[in-house]
Amino acid sequence: xxxxxxxxxxxxxxxxxxxxxxxxxxxxxxxxxxxxxxxxxxxxxxxxxxxxxxxxxxxxxxxxxxxxxxxxxxxxxxxxxxxxxxxxxxxxxxxxxxxxxxxxxxxxxxxxxxxxxxxxx
Length: 121
Ligand SMILES: [Zn+2]
Hints:
Helix 1 packs parallel to helix 3. The chain contains five helices and two strands; from the N terminus they run H-H-H-H-E-E-H. By secondary structure, it is mainly α. 17% of the residues are buried.
Protein backbone atom coordinates (compact mmCIF):
# COMPACT_ATOMS: atom_id res chain seq x y z
CA UNK A 1 0.00 0.00 0.00
CA UNK A 2 2.79 2.40 0.87
CA UNK A 3 4.56 1.76 -2.38
CA UNK A 4 1.30 2.18 -4.24
CA UNK A 5 0.67 5.52 -2.54
CA UNK A 6 4.21 6.54 -3.24
CA UNK A 7 3.97 5.68 -6.91
CA UNK A 8 0.71 7.60 -7.21
CA UNK A 9 2.44 10.64 -5.73
CA UNK A 10 5.50 10.17 -7.94
CA UNK A 11 3.39 10.01 -11.08
CA UNK A 12 1.40 13.06 -10.08
CA UNK A 13 4.41 15.14 -9.14
CA UNK A 14 5.02 17.73 -11.88
CA UNK A 15 8.77 18.19 -11.30
CA UNK A 16 11.69 16.16 -12.55
CA UNK A 17 11.81 12.62 -11.27
CA UNK A 18 13.55 9.30 -11.75
CA UNK A 19 11.86 5.94 -12.10
CA UNK A 20 9.95 4.29 -9.27
CA UNK A 21 12.78 1.94 -8.27
CA UNK A 22 15.24 4.78 -7.81
CA UNK A 23 12.87 7.17 -6.08
CA UNK A 24 11.47 4.49 -3.79
CA UNK A 25 14.95 3.30 -2.79
CA UNK A 26 15.90 6.85 -1.82
CA UNK A 27 12.65 7.40 0.05
CA UNK A 28 12.68 4.07 1.87
CA UNK A 29 16.26 4.51 2.98
CA UNK A 30 15.59 7.93 4.43
CA UNK A 31 12.20 7.36 6.01
CA UNK A 32 12.26 3.66 6.82
CA UNK A 33 10.63 4.13 10.20
CA UNK A 34 7.84 6.43 9.11
CA UNK A 35 6.68 5.04 5.77
CA UNK A 36 3.19 4.30 7.07
CA UNK A 37 2.82 7.83 8.30
CA UNK A 38 4.24 9.64 5.31
CA UNK A 39 2.97 7.73 2.29
CA UNK A 40 -0.69 8.76 2.61
CA UNK A 41 0.35 12.41 2.95
CA UNK A 42 2.26 12.70 -0.30
CA UNK A 43 -0.49 12.78 -2.90
CA UNK A 44 -2.75 15.24 -1.02
CA UNK A 45 0.23 17.53 -0.49
CA UNK A 46 1.10 17.50 -4.18
CA UNK A 47 -2.53 17.99 -5.18
CA UNK A 48 -2.78 20.98 -2.86
CA UNK A 49 0.38 22.50 -4.33
CA UNK A 50 -0.86 21.98 -7.88
CA UNK A 51 -4.21 23.54 -7.04
CA UNK A 52 -2.56 26.44 -5.27
CA UNK A 53 -0.22 27.15 -8.18
CA UNK A 54 -3.11 27.02 -10.61
CA UNK A 55 -5.02 29.73 -8.78
CA UNK A 56 -2.49 32.02 -7.11
CA UNK A 57 -1.17 35.16 -8.69
CA UNK A 58 1.87 35.10 -6.45
CA UNK A 59 5.18 33.98 -7.81
CA UNK A 60 5.94 30.31 -7.14
CA UNK A 61 9.37 28.70 -7.24
CA UNK A 62 9.75 26.01 -9.91
CA UNK A 63 9.05 22.45 -8.84
CA UNK A 64 12.03 20.83 -7.19
CA UNK A 65 13.32 17.48 -8.31
CA UNK A 66 11.12 14.84 -6.75
CA UNK A 67 14.00 13.40 -4.73
CA UNK A 68 14.78 16.86 -3.36
CA UNK A 69 11.15 17.33 -2.45
CA UNK A 70 11.15 13.97 -0.69
CA UNK A 71 14.47 14.45 1.09
CA UNK A 72 13.47 17.88 2.34
CA UNK A 73 10.15 16.63 3.71
CA UNK A 74 8.35 19.16 1.56
CA UNK A 75 4.96 17.51 1.85
CA UNK A 76 4.66 19.45 5.10
CA UNK A 77 4.96 22.76 3.24
CA UNK A 78 2.04 24.99 3.98
CA UNK A 79 -0.11 26.32 1.22
CA UNK A 80 -0.29 30.09 1.76
CA UNK A 81 -3.94 30.16 0.79
CA UNK A 82 -5.05 27.62 3.35
CA UNK A 83 -3.52 29.50 6.28
CA UNK A 84 -6.64 31.60 6.47
CA UNK A 85 -9.83 29.62 6.77
CA UNK A 86 -12.37 30.59 4.17
CA UNK A 87 -15.06 32.78 5.75
CA UNK A 88 -18.57 31.41 5.78
CA UNK A 89 -20.73 33.35 3.38
CA UNK A 90 -24.47 33.77 3.10
CA UNK A 91 -25.57 31.65 0.15
CA UNK A 92 -28.08 34.34 -0.87
CA UNK A 93 -26.26 37.68 -0.57
CA UNK A 94 -22.65 36.52 -0.13
CA UNK A 95 -22.09 38.55 3.03
CA UNK A 96 -19.96 37.06 5.78
CA UNK A 97 -22.08 38.10 8.76
CA UNK A 98 -23.86 34.77 8.81
CA UNK A 99 -25.95 33.57 11.71
CA UNK A 100 -27.09 30.05 10.97
CA UNK A 101 -26.46 27.11 8.65
CA UNK A 102 -28.25 24.01 7.47
CA UNK A 103 -26.42 20.94 6.30
CA UNK A 104 -26.53 20.75 2.54
CA UNK A 105 -27.78 24.32 2.17
CA UNK A 106 -24.88 26.24 3.62
CA UNK A 107 -24.91 29.48 5.58
CA UNK A 108 -27.45 32.28 5.82
CA UNK A 109 -27.20 35.76 7.30
CA UNK A 110 -29.64 37.69 9.50
CA UNK A 111 -31.33 39.70 6.70
CA UNK A 112 -35.01 38.96 6.38
CA UNK A 113 -34.91 38.61 2.59
CA UNK A 114 -32.13 36.10 2.87
CA UNK A 115 -33.86 34.17 5.65
CA UNK A 116 -36.99 33.86 3.53
CA UNK A 117 -35.12 32.88 0.41
CA UNK A 118 -33.07 30.44 2.45
CA UNK A 119 -36.21 28.85 3.88
CA UNK A 120 -37.58 28.31 0.37
CA UNK A 121 -34.41 26.66 -0.91
ZN1 LIG B 1 -27.76 37.15 3.22
